[in-house]
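Progress note, sequence design subtask.
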């Protein structure tokens, strides 16, 4: 019978693939760089095949590495689930999390992936809506937590700040047209309001060529060269260029992000996800207030 695969080797292997280098993977798994390098050598010896394309310090999985990656992730997930079911059986259930679509696209995927690794029995139901709608869902009890853009009149504690910028395809020069063609989210969205207010304050004539409830909708208009779009800077995709006052566009405000819970005491699992998000996204929990609570 062949020897079973060592889960510690697989855990380091997945970290190397996801981080792209032994150096960055070593900090994730809590081992020295040389120890992780030796683990990868040992794993390749056990498999009997090279697992990486090596380009200097950068490592990319080859075909054998990609195949092993699928099995490694599945084995590690099963191991985590088995341990959690025996050691923390109370950590099983559902948490309902709301987040605006642009934050869901760039901010949450790696954070939620790490939470799932640490809490494999917790299911997360993710709802994507504009911040005002998410707050209504919280008040109605349809969500446990929501990551929202804080408006000036709201007293929620600021978790982190994100820059709001203009973006467009460089080859079409949409920002040179008059009136300025813009792609905006639907009325009621905070990003739309800030973009319109900035244009009106600068007395810049504009026309709305795309109005969409979806991030994909406004991105499609921008990628086609039809319009300039206002986006959270970290969500600007490849192919779009950030624009500013040098291109004749008015400055946009920073966005304040807050993590908010609904009325009442959060469940054990919701509190666990809350604390994890606060730690990962950059702020310690704050004292809850009455009714809808700032975290």
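Output:
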């Amino acid at each position: 019978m062949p020897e079973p695969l060592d889960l510690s080797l697989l855990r380091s292997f997945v970290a190397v693939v996801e981080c792209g280098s032994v150096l960055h993977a070593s900090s994730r798994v809590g081992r020295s760089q040389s120890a992780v390098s030796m683990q990868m050598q040992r794993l390749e010896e056990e498999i009997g095949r090279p697992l990486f394309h090596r380009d200097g310090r950068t490592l990319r999985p080859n075909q054998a590495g990609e195949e092993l990656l699928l099995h490694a992730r599945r084995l590690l997930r099963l191991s985590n689930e088995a341990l959690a079911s025996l050691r923390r059986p109370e950590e099983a259930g559902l948490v309902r999390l709301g987040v605006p679509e642009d934050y869901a696209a760039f901010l949450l995927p790696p954070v939620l992936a790490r939470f799932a690794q640490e809490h494999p029995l917790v299911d997360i139901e993710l709802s994507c809506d504009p911040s005002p709608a998410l707050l209504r869902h919280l008040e109605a009890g349809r969500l446990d937590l929501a990551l929202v853009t804080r408006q000036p009149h709201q007293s929620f504690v600021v978790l982190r700040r994100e820059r709001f910028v203009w973006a467009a395809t460089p080859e079409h020069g949409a920002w040179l047209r008059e009136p300025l063609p813009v792609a905006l989210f639907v009325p009621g969205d905070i990003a739309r309001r800030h973009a319109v207010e900035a244009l009106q304050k600068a007395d810049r004539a504009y026309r709305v060529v795309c109005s969409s409830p979806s991030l994909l909708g406004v991105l499609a208009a921008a990628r086609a060269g039809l319009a300039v779009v206002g986006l959270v800077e970290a969500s600007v995709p490849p192919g779009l260029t950030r624009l500013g006052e040098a291109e004749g566009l008015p400055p946009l405000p920073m966005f304040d992000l807050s993590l908010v819970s609904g009325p009442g005491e959060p469940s054990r699992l919701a509190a666990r996800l809350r604390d994890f998000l606060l730690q990962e996204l950059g702020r310690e929990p704050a004292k809850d207030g009455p009714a809808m609570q700032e975290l």
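The first strand starts at residue 52 and ends at 55. Work on this subtask will continue into the next period as scheduled.
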